[in-house]
Write a structure and sequence with these properties.
This protein is α+β, with helices and mostly antiparallel strands and 735 residues long. 48% of the residues lie in helices and 12% in strands. Strands 3-2-1-4-7-6-8 form a seven-stranded mixed beta sheet, with helices on both faces. A six-stranded antiparallel beta barrel has the order 10-11-12-15-14-13. Strands 5-9 form a two-stranded antiparallel ribbon. The radius of gyration is 29 Å and the shape is globular. The N terminus is likely disordered.
């Protein structure tokens, strides 16, 4: 059956606007508040009915020290461990020791929670309290699995092996034929052009480049003819990208296959660093990280892209090197090299799911092939530029990651793979349900606030002794262990943003795993001349913020203004629910602000490249250096004392002296800066040589502005708070 999977499916007509649903929910909350005030009680249930009159005695094993000073020792120890991380290097040995300490504190915390803090006074209290404890136990299990799967990273080992293996490649002693596949559907030709140019610039002589065009576009065929690369298309789009790749397998015969998405730009040393591994006949695939040249759009919307790590850096920089130890890496669809013989032995790319990469890699692992991960950034890609595209991409990944667990007939994961590999699949399966878990953690404290049910029953000193040390260590060690690739509070912003759309998607997937749900291709090069609030996706979070503020005012404002009786019925643990509700509201508000897309007027990203140039304008010559540069223009800062006189037409030739190419450019505007002139240029004509020079200059290496960000946790936290209080993404336009 022929299908056109890449087109965006038509959305069913909305009978009721999301705003109407939000107003309805808010009206119901208001009605509840009025009823509460009418019957003269601050919560849905009487506090004395759903909470114990007194705390249950702690078991002897969990008794607090008798003197107050000793009760501070767990927190002091946790604080000392957290502070010591500033001087302890993060390596395989130190990570294992520190994370075992975290597990010890976590087990101590869960023991206390299970034996002493559950609220079973009322049937509703018991259901809510035990359910939340179950979610905490589940989180702890996933953390233990995470520690097990990242106990020994292979990044340094793989880099040493790459150094050893590439010697034969550079010397020409090992030079197998490599087919470079660039699958494309609807990417603009200018994006495809720079990928082709970069692939042609790879320092490897025995390579052939193929454009696999599922869009059957004449302009792409013309581009391939112009650049001298092979063009392959097919009459249908059956099986999406997997079908496209399988069709190309039948048309080519290279010993190795390198795959790049249409927006990924490989470095010149990509093949010299990866091909050498295939001298080892036991290796079937080499995957490298995905890294992106444009800022993470969440951070850019908040104006903190200069310091925040992208949401994928944690996975590619930390999780994948850990999985590599047990042959459990995930094939990620681009920037990898695979041995054709082994790929064809498992039947080619897996076609049953909406994505092909993870499933194909898993099929090869089931067959006993070795997939390895080289943790070196050897290519740059384009990440989604707005919230809708990001969300649709992640929802598609969620469906693909879930579908694999409904393919047991031909992907026998649980019966064939090793214990380590199965543990990785168990972690991923649990992570797929994270939207549901995150939604429960968001809504639960608010429900506790409005119903009067305490989810945990404990004193302040018990929290200080058991809970706070564990929380402190968890927050501190995540950032340290990942070398700044993951900041817990920033990670929660991503999870909160994805919680409700992900939960809806999960329900659809569980009802029909292989149904057509959402888009199956990520838009690239998206431009917009206006701000997008994206309230159609984030209104549940905004509603949660408003409801939390409203609920806190109804609950505690009534005490302050004398509407409710004094706090004689408040029970230990309710204050914790208040703090948790406030925290959730803060994170949800940051997520809403981060989802406000800013106008994107420039088609090409500008980078702070400083290189010497000469600008020939008529009979005059001006010297200077670029302050920033893109594929379509530059800001040229002239040497001291030089100014461009007014002329009718300001069009000249800009020569890049160090790189030895030139472009025709027009002066868009001029500005004086500290007694010097800065010319803002728009490129008019970029010939083939200039195009190749610009691609290598802009994307040809991991220069400082492309390197991953690794902020200190305190700095990152401060940046988040500043953007929370200045509402910059809401009131500021970015140029």
């Amino acid at each position: 059956m022929t299908q056109e999977p890449h087109s965006r499916p038509a959305s069913p007509p909305q009978l009721v606007s999301p705003w109407v649903w939000g107003f309805l929910v808010l009206s119901v909350l208001t009605l509840v508040a009025v009823l509460l005030a009418t019957v003269w009680q601050p919560t849905l249930f009487p506090i004395g009915l759903v909470n114990p009159d007194q705390l249950r005695p702690l078991p002897e094993l969990l008794q607090l020290p008798r003197d107050d000073l000793s009760q501070w020792w767990p927190l002091v120890i946790a604080a000392l461990v957290a502070l010591s991380l500033n001087i302890i290097p993060s390596n395989n040995v130190t990570r294992l020791v520190i994370r075992l300490i975290v597990i010890l504190f976590g087990f101590r915390y869960l023991l206390w929670r299970g034996l002493a803090t559950l609220n079973t006074t009322h049937w509703f209290s018991a259901i809510a309290s035990i359910s939340f404890y179950g979610l905490e136990v589940l989180y702890f299990i996933t953390y233990v699995l995470y520690v097990y799967q990242t106990a020994w990273l292979t990044d340094r080992q793989r880099s040493r092996e790459a150094n050893y293996y590439q010697a034969a490649v550079l010397a020409g002693e090992y030079c197998p034929s490599v087919d470079i596949f660039i699958p494309t559907y609807n990417e603009p030709p200018y994006i495809l052009r720079r990928t082709i140019v970069a692939c042609q610039g790879i320092n490897y002589r025995n390579k052939t480049i193929y454009i696999l065009d599922d869009g059957r576009r004449s302009e792409v065929a013309d581009l391939c003819a112009q650049l001298g690369v092979h063009y392959i298309t097919r009459p249908t789009n059956e099986h999406r990208k997997a079908g496209n790749l399988n069709h190309a397998l039948q048309q080519t015969n290279g010993e190795l296959i390198a795959v790049f998405d249409a927006d990924f730009i490989p470095f010149q040393n990509f093949l010299s660093r990866t091909v050498g591994f295939f001298q080892n006949d036991q290796i079937s695939m080499v995957q490298t990280p995905q890294h992106f040249f444009n800022p993470d759009y969440h951070a850019q919307n908040l104006g903190i892209e200069f310091m925040m790590p992208g949401d994928m850096e944690y996975f590619f920089g930390f999780i994948q090197p850990g999985r590599d130890f047990g042959n459990a890496i995930i094939c990620c669809g681009t920037s990898y090299v695979v041995r054709r013989r082994d790929l064809e032995a498992v039947g080619g790319y897996y076609t049953r799911c909406v994505v092909e990469d993870f499933q194909t890699g898993t099929k090869m692992q089931i067959a006993g092939y070795r997939l390895i991960y080289l943790n070196e950034i050897l290519s740059l890609g384009e990440s989604p530029r707005n919230f809708r595209d990001h969300l649709e991409q992640r929802l598609r990944w969620l469906q693909g990651n879930m579908q694999i667990y409904f393919c047991g007939d031909d992907l026998p994961i649980w019966s064939t793979l090793s214990w380590f590999q199965r543990s990785c699949h168990l972690s991923l399966l649990l992570y797929n349900f994270n939207p549901f878990t995150r939604a429960c953690f968001l809504v639960g404290p608010f429900v506790s606030l409005m119903t009067g049910v305490s989810l945990t029953v404990a004193t302040f000193w018990e929290y200080l002794y058991f809970a706070i040390p564990y929380t402190l260590l968890t927050l501190a060690t995540f950032s340290w262990a990942t070398e700044g690739r993951y900041f817990s509070l920033w990670g929660e912003v991503y999870e909160v943003m994805f919680a409700f759309p992900g939960m809806v998607q999960l329900i659809k997937i569980l009802r029909n795993p292989f149904g057509k749900i959402g888009s199956v291709v990520t838009n690239k090069g998206t431009l917009s001349n206006r701000k997008h609030l994206n309230l159609a996706f984030t209104w549940p979070l905004l509603l949660l913020v408003l409801a939390s503020v409203f609920g806190i005012f109804v609950r505690y404002g009534g005490y302050w203004f004398g509407v409710w009786p004094p706090l004689e019925y408040e029970r230990a643990g309710l204050e914790v629910m208040l703090a948790w509700t406030v925290y959730n509201a803060v994170i949800a508000l940051i997520a809403v602000l981060a989802a406000i897309d800013q106008p994107t007027r420039r088609q090409s990203d500008r980078f702070p490249i400083c290189t010497v140039c000469r600008f020939d304008l008529g009979s005059q010559t001006f010297w200077g250096y670029t302050r920033d540069l893109s594929e379509t223009g530059a800001a040229l800062l002239l040497t001291a004392g030089r100014q461009v006189p007014p002329q009718p037409i300001l069009t000249g030739t800009l020569t890049f002296l160090e790189q030895d190419f030139k472009v025709q450019a027009a002066v868009v505007r001029m500005r004086q800066e500290d007694e010097r002139s800065c010319l803002y240029l728009r490129f008019l004509e970029v010939d083939e040589a200039a195009s190749r020079g610009l691609v290598q200059l802009l994307y040809g290496g991991l220069t400082w502005w492309h390197k991953p960000k690794a902020p200190h946790a305190i700095d990152a936290f401060g940046a988040m708070l500043r953007r929370l209080f200045d509402f910059r993404s809401l009131f500021t336009l970015y140029s």
